[in-house]
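Notes, Module 5: Reading structure tokens.

Key idea: the token line is not a picture. It is a compressed description, and you learn to read it the same way you learned to read a sequence, by spotting repeated patterns. We will look at two proteins. The first is printed below with its tokens.
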Amino acid sequence: MAMPTMAAPQPGVHALGLFPRRDTLLYVPKNYTGQQPAPLAVMLHGAGGEAQHAIALLQPLADAAGLLLLAPASRGRTWDIIVSDYGPDVAQLDQGLAEVFSRFAIDSAHVAVGGFSDGASYGLSLGLMNGDLFSHILAFSPGFMAPIGQKGQPGVFISHGTHDTVLPIDRCSRRIVPQLKAAGYRVNYHEFDGPHTVPESIARQALAWFAE
């Protein structure tokens, strides 16, 4: 459990001030008081997106769950590993996490990383590499995973639409899930009748699983 060392900001969305543009955003739920550790989810946007898109994935449900949301923005159009190699985006994420852990009481048993589309692929990869920090992975319609080594055994939630034409399910999640299970990971997998999106019902299932 990480305890805060300075006053936490008021509820709502806040820019952390790490960059003059494409800054990292933090959502503080309405009921956060700092009196008890809160769950934290690092959410990552899809290609061409921005931090607000990642916050929006779970923000409608965050207040009821008492969930803190941290959302960096990729330095380029998408995340570094998808273009070349791990680098500036990981450094930015480390800065954002350091800021949050210094200011909030965080429940170390409920720290998730994930996202949508390219953000799901990136979150899945980072989560597998950093299972000593991330207890859970929330991957909504991932395309691939590319961890450099594996650490820990985080639980994994994956969802994917059966009519996804952007990242077709047969060559994405239906390949990823068996690989994860074969490697010994606990995978909660949901296919839904829909396109490249995150239905509210799926988001609710993901948060209910994360909160267990």
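Here is the second protein, with the sequence above and the tokens below, as before.
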Amino acid sequence: MATTEETRPGPTEAAGWRDRVRSTRAGRLTLKIVIGVLGGAMVIGGLIMVPFPGPGWLVVFAGLAVLATEFHWANILLAFAKRVVTAATDWLKRQNWFIRIVSTLLTAALAGAIVWLCLKLTVGVDLIEEARAFLKW
């Protein structure tokens, strides 16, 4: 069955659902707990993923967006994070190609060092020693 505009819930229907849940004291508390646990888990999971290749920061910001639906402090923190990321991105765009290349290389080196250190400390695999052994054959 194809989804049409008529069958999709609109923004007012979603807000109406939340309003119905919030209409009781138990519903408000339950919604805050569910949103807090879900958003908190997303933020913590995203922070764990940050040093590794993947969508770590995206998950952190998504978790903050989930928390911002129920908590005012999360809305303020999300707005602050957006301003900081936008300012850093705008600054980097204004720089010449040499600064952009150096910052990219430094970011890649830092990410590589974090992955190397995490693998060495948690799994016991030293990627540098593995590469040396591989190149010796």
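Summary for the second protein:
- The CA atoms of residues 64 and 74 lie 6 Å apart.
- The chain has a mean pLDDT of 84.
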